[in-house]
Amino acid sequence: MPESPLTRPSLLVRIRDARDREAWAQFVRVYVPLIYRFVLRSGLQDADAADVTQEVLRAVARACKRLDYDPQRGRFRSWLFTVVRSKLGDFVAEQRRQERGSGDSNTLALLDRLPAREQDALWEQEYERHVFTWAAEQVRDDFTDSTWQAFWQTAVDGKSGKDVAAALGLSIGAVYIAKSRVLARLKEQIRQLDGE
Question: In the predicted model, is pLDDT for residue 18 greater than 50?
Answer without folding.
Answer: yes
